[in-house]
Specification:
single chain, about 220 residues, mainly alpha, Endonuclease III, domain 1, about 60% helix, about 0% strand, DNA-binding
Length: about 220
DNA sequence: TGCCAGGCCGGGT
DNA sequence: ACCCGGCATGGC
């Protein structure tokens, strides 16, 4: 079932070249900054950090939280997110000598548990880091994914994050490239056809999968 | 002009 | 194990 969704989306849109980011660390920063925030607001924050040479692990670790907060202001929740960036940097130093390469060599489940213990890293952020920065085969469940599943009666609002993640991971081969493309494609259709209001699925390529009763 | 956007934390039940 | 208020900006 989900495999057919993927085939349909890939035929319609092709490869998405995700995640936008020039380095693994930049991808991680983006994952934290985009929490409940539109990507355009995050882009400004990231270019500010780049301009100030703060898009590296050691630089984030050294920077004062107030300075960080000022530079990422446009991404919203900026004091919280400044603290989260520091917490992640400290985590990598404390556990992996400041090396992302070492960090991502850890077994997927072990690293996932460690990431979830870091302040500011919840399930979606942990999985985005694992998949998009680390190429580990975990499926990311975000607001778009959940909305798609609910619109298609494949999930209900009470389903937990872990339940939805396991739905994807048991239905598909554990292939990071596949998970990457699939999730990116879900976000793409979500942005174009599946917003909260203005739900016109008329030209959505997934329209044929909609249950008859829910067709608009 | 209010509502929304690729969540998460901490305290309460 | 859930539930909820707080966190904050920029675009429409």
């Amino acid at each position: 079932m989900l495999k057919e969704y993927y085939e349909t989306l890939f035929s319609a849109y092709g490869p998405q070249h995700w995640w936008p980011g020039r380095s693994r660390f930049e991808v991680i920063v983006g994952a934290i900054l985009t929490q409940n925030t539109s990507w355009t607001n995050v882009e400004r924050a990231i270019s500010n950090l780049r301009r100030e040479k703060l898009l590296t692990l050691p630089a984030i670790r050294r920077a004062r939280p107030s300075r960080l907060a000022q530079l990422i202001r446009s991404s919203g929740y900026f004091r919280q997110k400044a603290r989260k960036l520091k917490a992640f940097a400290n985590f990598v130093y404390a556990n992996y000598s400041g090396s992302l390469t070492r960090m991502f060599r850890a077994p997927t489940q072990q690293l996932r548990h460690q990431l979830l213990a870091v302040h500011g890293i919840g399930p979606e952020t942990a999985d985005s880091i694992l998949l998009y920065a680390g190429r580990h085969p975990v499926f990311v469940i975000d607001a778009y994914t959940r909305r798609l599943l609910e619109r298609h009666s494949l999930a209900s609002p009470s389903d937990s994050y872990e339940h939805l993640r396991s739905l994807f991971e048991r239905s598909l081969p554990a292939d990071h490239q596949l998970f990457n493309e699939f999730h990116a494609l879900i976000v793409h259709v979500g942005k174009n056809f599946c917003r909260k209001s203005a739900a016109d699925c008329h030209s959505c390529p997934l329209r044929r999968f909609l249950p008859l009763a829910t067709l608009p």
